[in-house]
């Protein structure tokens, strides 16, 4: 009797869910949009722009809610993602600490290659910035000279040990043979503000983070770390032109949780592909110095993550993990 | 000055345009209710309603969201006073005196004081904003880690130098708060620390609202139930016009602390990363330190309601400043507003004031109007809020319990935090029973992470040299104030001791 009851009940349950499963998957509750960095930084700006576009274009039946989890150089966000295994309503806005933080923090126990690859929205770039009041620094040579003079008391602002800017800073130390003091702040926006306020001597910020201060004449770029000069910074030389062998990009991609349903993955992939192609997104890329030529998704994106993971492992080995963490 | 006035005039005119004015009214009303619901703070409110704003032009949209932000600041006080649960983290300090006032049948006075103080705080800060936005933005840039640390010391000092409370117990309470604040990822190195029983949930740290709701909602409720054995002890308040007028006249008692709270709140709000919660706690601490009868704080002093409410409203205006001029939000709510601005095609930064004057001055104009609207709405709704207290405590207590559980779960979406809240509630009850002040623990968990980060940043930047705090003028002044505040009760005691023998001899 009890068996029969269970049977009828499961049949009834099936009957209710079956039509829903046939319809195309779409979010049934607000989607958490986890940002592995602080407010005002590049990742944060992008997440909030995307969220706004999704809502203003009516692309999702449920809103995307951006949530900042900057703790431990993104470890907070990654461990949060790990805890959401199988969840269809949680996405991560990833940057390069997506690779570096799991390498540096071994006890974090998260394999980022298991996260669902949704799409790569852009490749972001880095520039070296100083305050405009520093008339004594006009190019890379005068910069290096001043840093060496300061004898490791030169203060570089960044977003945290193990974050991409700390790796870039370590690469510069190695290439140019100097030492600096690296001070972590919560988020790229705060880093930029502290450069304007002369609380730090230089930073490696993304273009978007310094854009408004640069336009207002508060800060100036010294060198860019791209392969070629990127607009709007056509006047700023690349490191390679000056004989310094550093090329470093930052990926901006979206990842889903481990074990996310294939239908959900597909829905998000289509959503972000549409966003990627939108005029608003392409305009943003242009004005803020991001490269958005190539859309990567699915297996291609997974392969890209794999190769980036390998590259960062090598980079960290090269500069030494201690030079990044023991600051 | 003339240009400012004419720009402001244009802004005010803009605020009175039918659409914009409707946005102010709706925003204030929505904010009031969102703020009053435990677990639904201004952050959630602004986030949920952001998409609605895509239907109207950008200026009307930000006016709506900003009005909602103020409304929520006012509304937070309502549940702090009537239910004893902080409606949002910014209203925690309002519980300290608001709750005792409600218990002694003066809930209407507390609500009136909260509304008026919020109005004064909001208005003073918007005037400061209007007149001095550019120099204040420049001053905020001078605030490096050293200055932030020194300012945090002042905040802690106000809570230690309280005179009336038992100082060792206060320090113990602060230390408990600091330990809880240290749980989670290390701010500088990123390593996990104090992960109790290796539970991964602790990696994210202990959310402040979990502690505040636990201690004030649950702990306080258990204590009250035990104390009164469930007997009805909320007095019914009869609202008459005369009583309203009397309550209004009470303004004299808290005007000075309100003014101080407003200025402090605005200033703390303008610093990026501080926000309205530390501002309201600091306003409370300073009000208590400078009060003639500091001992009555925490037991139902009306100034103890006015100060934090003035502080948090002033700070919410203040935190617009770094958002607009530096592109750095001063609070989680302004972070979402910032996102809205980017979507509307506005670029916050040093050039915003000159490139989009219509937008900026429309917003500033609306702040003046929003303050009037919220204070009017609030005073009109006091009789409605008061009705909550007409319920017997045996009915009210289970409702509070449910609201605490729902409030925490709605905020963090984790059962773990709900259990943690109950555990911290028991801790709060024990502290209360053993006569430990709980407010300092709350202060410590809010300011602990900010203090730790600024201390470590300062020391890294000075190569480990602590003199850096004394060499910088702003930081030095703050440290001297902190030292004076801490030593004040001791000095007072010594003076009293000297006087006593002298008097005895006479």
UniProtKB/TrEMBL annotation, chain A:
Establish whether keyword Membrane is in the entry: no
Per the record, the domain of life is Bacteria
What Gene3D superfamilies has UniProt attached to this entry?
Answer: Bordetella uptake gene, domain 1, Periplasmic binding protein-like II
| Sorted UniProt keywords | Receptor, Signal
In the record, which residues are listed under signal peptide? 1-23
Family listed: Belongs to the UPF0065 (bug) family.
User: What's the protein called, per UniProt?
Assistant: Tripartite-type tricarboxylate transporter, receptor component TctC
Organism in which the protein naturally occurs: Roseivivax sediminis
UniProtKB/TrEMBL annotation, chain B:
Q: Where is the signal peptide?
A: none
Q: Does the keyword Transferase apply?
A: no
> Does this entry carry the keyword Transmembrane?
yes
Keywords for this protein:
Membrane, Transmembrane, Transmembrane helix
* Transmembrane region(s): 20-40, 47-71, 77-98, 110-129, 149-164, 171-188, 208-225, 326-347, 359-381, 388-409, 474-491
Q: Domain DUF112, which positions?
A: 22-443
In Pfam terms, one family for this protein is TctA
Name of the protein in question: Putative tricarboxylic transport membrane protein
């Amino acid at each position: 009797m009890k068996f029969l009851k269970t049977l009828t009940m499961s049949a009834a349950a099936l009957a209710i869910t079956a039509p829903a499963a046939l319809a195309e998957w779409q979010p049934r509750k607000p989607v958490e949009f986890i940002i592995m960095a602080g407010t005002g930084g590049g990742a944060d700006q992008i997440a909030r722009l995307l969220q706004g576009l999704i809502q203003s274009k009516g692309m999702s039946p449920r809103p995307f809610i951006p949530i900042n989890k900057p703790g431990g150089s993104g470890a907070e966000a990654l461990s949060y993602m790990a805890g959401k295994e199988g969840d269809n309503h949680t996405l991560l806005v990833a940057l390069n600490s997506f690779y570096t933080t799991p390498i540096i923090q071994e006890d974090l126990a998260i394999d980022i290659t298991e996260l669902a690859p949704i799409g790569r929205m852009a490749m972001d770039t880095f520039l070296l910035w100083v305050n405009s009041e520093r008339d004594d620094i006009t190019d890379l040579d005068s910069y290096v000279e001043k840093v060496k003079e300061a004898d490791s008391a030169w203060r570089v602002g960044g977003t945290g040990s193990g974050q991409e800017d700390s790796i870039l800073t370590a690469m510069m130390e190695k290439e140019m043979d100097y030492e600096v003091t690296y001070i972590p702040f919560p988020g790229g926006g705060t880093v930029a503000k502290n450069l304007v306020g002369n609380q730090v001597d230089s930073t490696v910020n993304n273009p978007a983070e310094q854009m408004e201060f640069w336009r207002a004449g508060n800060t100036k770029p010294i060198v860019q770390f791209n392969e070629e000069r990127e607009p709007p910074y056509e006047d700023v030389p690349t490191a390679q032109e000056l004989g310094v062998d550093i090329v470093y990009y930052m990926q901006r991609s979206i990842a889903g949780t481990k074990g996310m349903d294939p239908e959900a993955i597909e829905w998000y992939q289509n959503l972000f592909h549409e966003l990627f192609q939108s005029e608003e997104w392409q305009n943003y890329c242009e004005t803020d110095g991001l490269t958005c030529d190539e859309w990567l998704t699915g297996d291609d994106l997974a392969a890209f993550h794999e190769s980036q993971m390998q590259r960062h492992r090598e980079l960290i080995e090269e500069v030494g993990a201690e030079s990044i963490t023991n600051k | 000055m003339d240009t400012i006035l004419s720009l402001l005039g244009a802004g005010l005119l803009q605020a009175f345009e039918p659409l914009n004015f409707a946005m102010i009214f709706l925003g204030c009303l929505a904010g009031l209710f969102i703020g009053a619901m435990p677990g639904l703070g201004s952050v959630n409110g602004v986030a949920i309603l952001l998409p609605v704003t895509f239907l109207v032009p950008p200026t009307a949209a930000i006016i709506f969201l900003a009005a909602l932000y103020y409304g929520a600041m006012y509304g937070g006080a309502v549940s702090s006073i009537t239910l004893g649960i902080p409606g949002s983290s910014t209203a925690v300090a309002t519980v300290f005196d608001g709750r005792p006032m409600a218990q002694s049948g003066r809930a209407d006075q507390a609500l009136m004081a909260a509304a008026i103080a919020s109005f004064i705080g909001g208005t003073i800060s918007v005037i400061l904003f209007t007149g001095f936005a550019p120099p204040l933005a420049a001053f905020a840039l001078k605030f490096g880690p050293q200055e932030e640390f020194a300012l945090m010391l002042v905040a802690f000092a106000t809570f230690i130098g309280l005179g009336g409370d038992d100082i060792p117990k206060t320090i113990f309470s602060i230390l408990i708060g600091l330990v809880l604040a240290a749980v989670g990822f290390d701010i500088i190195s990123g390593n996990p620390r104090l992960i109790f029983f290796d539970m991964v949930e602790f990696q994210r740290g202990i959310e402040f609202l979990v502690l505040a709701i636990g201690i004030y909602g649950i702990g306080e409720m258990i204590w009250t139930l035990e104390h009164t054995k469930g007997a009805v002890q909320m007095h019914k308040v009869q609202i008459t016009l005369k009583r309203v007028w009397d309550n209004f006249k009470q303004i004299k008692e808290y005007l000075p602390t309100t003014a101080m709270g407003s200025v402090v709140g605005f200033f703390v709000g303008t610093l990026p990363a501080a926000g309205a919660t530390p501002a309201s706690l600091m306003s409370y601490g300073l009000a208590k330190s400078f009060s003639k009868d500091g001992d009555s704080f925490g037991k139902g002093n009306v100034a103890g309601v006015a100060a934090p409410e003035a502080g948090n409203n002033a700070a919410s205006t203040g935190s617009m400043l770094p958002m607009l001029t530096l592109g750095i939000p001063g609070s989680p709510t302004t972070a979402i507003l910032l996102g809205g601005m980017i979507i509307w095609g506005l670029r916050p930064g040093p050039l915003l004031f000159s490139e989009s004057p219509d937008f900026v001055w429309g917003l500033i104009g609306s702040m003046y109007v929003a303050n009037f609207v919220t204070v009017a709405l609030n005073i009109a709704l006091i009789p409605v809020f008061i009705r909550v207290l007409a319920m017997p405590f045996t009915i009210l207590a289970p409702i509070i319990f449910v609201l605490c559980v729902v409030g925490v779960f709605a905020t963090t979406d984790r059962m773990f935090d709900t259990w943690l809240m109950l555990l911290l509630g028991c801790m709060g009850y024990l502290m209360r029973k053993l006569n430990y002040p709980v407010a300092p623990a709350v202060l410590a968990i809010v300011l602990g992470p900010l203090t730790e980060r600024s201390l470590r940043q300062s020391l890294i930047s000075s190569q480990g040299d602590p003199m850096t705090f004394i060499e910088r003028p702003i930081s030095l002044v703050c440290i001297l104030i902190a030292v004076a505040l801490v030593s004040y009760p001791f000095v007072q005691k010594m003076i009293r001791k000297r006087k006593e023998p002298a008097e005895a001899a006479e």
